[in-house]
Design goal:
The chain is of the alpha/beta class and 253 residues long. It has a 5-stranded parallel sheet with strand order 2-1-3-4-5, sandwiched between helices. Helix 3 packs parallel to helix 4 and helix 4 runs parallel beside helix 6. The longest helix has 18 residues.
């Protein structure tokens, strides 16, 4: 008999996601919110662009032909990409906007399209836009290592808009990290340092904001996944019969 596998949330992305398992990161906060209910898997790959991430995703997901009744279900896939695709053209990570849009759309279709060999009807998707770049911080950080500035504020904004477009075209929820942080800093690039570590990566304060916006998107669009209303997979200790201690797992959705 196969062992028990708890259902999951997958957080897919680049270093912004990879770093988010640290204390205060949005993945860590999700793990805390869903403890005993859903396992939160960090699939963030530092330095990756959308094309590379698409290839990895197809190695992380089971094909439909491989799924059994005992297989864990993926109830939510968050996708946070664009920060590396939007580097200047001389960097190997650069992906032109049309190719970025195509790859992001294919990532969504990988789990939502019935024609995909990885189709997962239980899986909900939420897209996040890349944060704005603080070129002041970024330039200083790179200069300290003898490297030139590799990103443009306006260029990153165009990639954030592409994520918004894909969200609308594919009818999936969208967490606008770019606009949220830009408004919070009063549309003043220098003030972005309140939310950034090095001009590219966000800090714990920003992660907290992103987590709250993500939870709100879940409650609005996928209320059945609201962690406040999900029951633990295994009953709490006070629900057990001390004379017959044999807790059984139960479906939570």
């Amino acid at each position: 008999m196969p062992g028990f596998g708890q259902d999951v949330i997958i957080c897919l992305g680049d270093s912004l996601t990879q770093r988010a398992s640290r204390p205060g990161g949005f993945v860590q906060l999700l793990s805390q919110a869903y403890v005993r209910k859903l396992d939160v898997l960090n699939r963030g790959y530092g330095g990756y662009n959308s094309l590379w991430t698409l290839a990895v995703l197809k190695q992380c997901l089971p094909k439909r032909s491989e799924v059994t009744p005992a297989s864990p279900k993926i109830h939510l896939l968050t996708v946070w990409l664009g920060a590396n695709d939007s580097v200047l053209e001389w960097k190997k990570q650069h992906v032109p906007i049309p190719a970025f849009k195509k790859a992001l759309t294919e990532i969504v279709h990988t789990v939502t399209s019935p024609s995909s060999e990885y189709y997962s009807p239980e899986t909900k998707v939420i897209l996040l836009s890349p944060p704005p770049i603080n070129t002041i911080q970024r330039a200083a950080d790179l200069a300290s290592r003898g490297q030139p500035l590799d990103r443009s504020f306006d260029h990153t904004a165009r990639y954030a808009e592409v994520v918004r477009q894909v969200s609308a075209e594919e009818n999936v929820p969208f967490v606008d990290v770019y606009e949220r942080l830009w408004e919070l800093c009063g549309q003043d690039e220098k003030r972005l340092e309140q939310y950034m570590v090095d001009g590219l990566h966000v800090n714990d304060e920003a992660y907290g904001i992103i987590y709250e916006d993500l939870i709100q998107a879940i409650r609005t669009h996928y209320p059945e996944l609201d962690p406040e209303y999900l029951q633990p997979v295994f009953p709490t200790w006070d629900q057990l019969d001390q004379h017959n201690p044999n807790p059984q797992s139960r479906a939570i959705i």
